[in-house]
Specification:
17% strand, Rossmann fold, two-stranded antiparallel ribbon, alpha/beta
Length: 277
């Protein structure tokens, strides 16, 4: 069975999940991809709180792969996710330092500035998940294409989103005509595009199989949705716990106020005794 790998790591659980949840359904594929191709260099453009990036890093570490991983982001946000504070970078940096420092580097800069850090033909996996306008996605794809190796795979996220300003789907219309690719049309959509002339054999096999039988893609969807639902349940549990604590604190305050009112009423009763009829 094609999906089955020596470690079957794609069945595993991600250790580092945060908001936003958009990438979570694609984590089983990220795990699978890492195990089957053991890329020498992986670069991510757009990391935010790290859901996708730490999934790649987790697989790299657990499977003892040889990948050097790089995350590029200003960690300031953009027109789609909005601007966010420095605590996001601090948290990502803390996890990276503690768990993945031996092989993972955070490049806190504009994508275009990071281009000089990589030589031509050196990247095996590039994940593009920055600003999602057509112009930005096209710019990222074109600028980084020369950096891809002969077996390179570019992952594009948000291929299915049709909200205003999200135009990766437009870029996909052009890419589909030109490259061999796999599409995962669930969640917000992910595509794995073979930009090199020599795609890794397991990717070729998966592409061929998915042409005959879409069920293989649906397995990734089922596994991904499980992870997403578990995360949502965990978030709700935490939220419920917070509300319970808040309710308990309010109850304590209420009790105090009721006691004070009782005392006050007593005092008022003494100062202003009811007039005798
Ligand atoms: C959609 S989020 C990434 C989501 C992430 N991959 C995940 O798994 O949740 C996009 C990120 O790209 C960053 N970004 C967008 N355009 C950028 C650019 N030109 N240079 C550097 N960072 C950029 C933003 O700061 C933001 O953190």
């Amino acid at each position: 069975m094609l999906l089955s790998t020596p470690g079957n790591y794609f069945l595993g659980k991600p250790q580092f999940l945060d908001n936003p949840h958009g990438w979570i359904p694609h984590i089983p594929f990220a795990f699978w991809l890492m195990e089957v191709i053991d890329p020498s260099v992986l670069v991510e453009l757009g990391t935010y709180s790290g859901n996708s990036y730490f999934a790649f890093c987790q697989a790299r570490k657990a499977l003892g792969l040889s990948t050097r991983c790089f995350a590029v982001d200003t960690w300031q946000g953009d027109m789609h996710v909005g601007n966010y504070g420095k605590e996001i970078y601090e948290q990502v940096s803390k996890i990276n330092q503690k768990e993945f420092a031996g092989f993972s580097t955070l490049l806190r800069m504009e994508f275009d500035k990071a281009l000089d850090s990589f030589s031509e033909g050196s990247i095996d996996v590039l994940h593009i998940d920055g600003t999602h306008t057509y112009a930005a996605a096209r710019n990222d794809f074109d600028n980084w294409l020369p950096k891809m190796s002969h077996q390179g795979i570019i992952l594009l996220h948000d291929t299915e989103v049709r909200r205003p300003g999200f135009e990766v789907w437009k870029l996909m219309e052009e890419i589909r005509k030109r490259y061999k690719l796999l599409e995962f049309p669930f969640g917000e959509g992910l595509a794995a595009i073979c930009t090199g002339e020599n795609p890794p054999a397991p990717i070729n096999e998966l592409i061929e199989l998915s042409k005959k039988d879409l069920q293989i893609i649906q397995w990734f969807e089922i596994l991904g949705n499980n992870i997403l639902l578990e995360k949502e349940r965990e978030d709700l549990k935490q939220e419920t716990k917070k509300w319970k604590q808040k309710t308990a604190a309010i109850n304590v305050e209420l009790l105090k106020e009721k006691r004070k009112t009782k005392t006050l009423k007593k005092q008022l009763g003494q100062n202003h005794p009811n007039p005798k009829p």
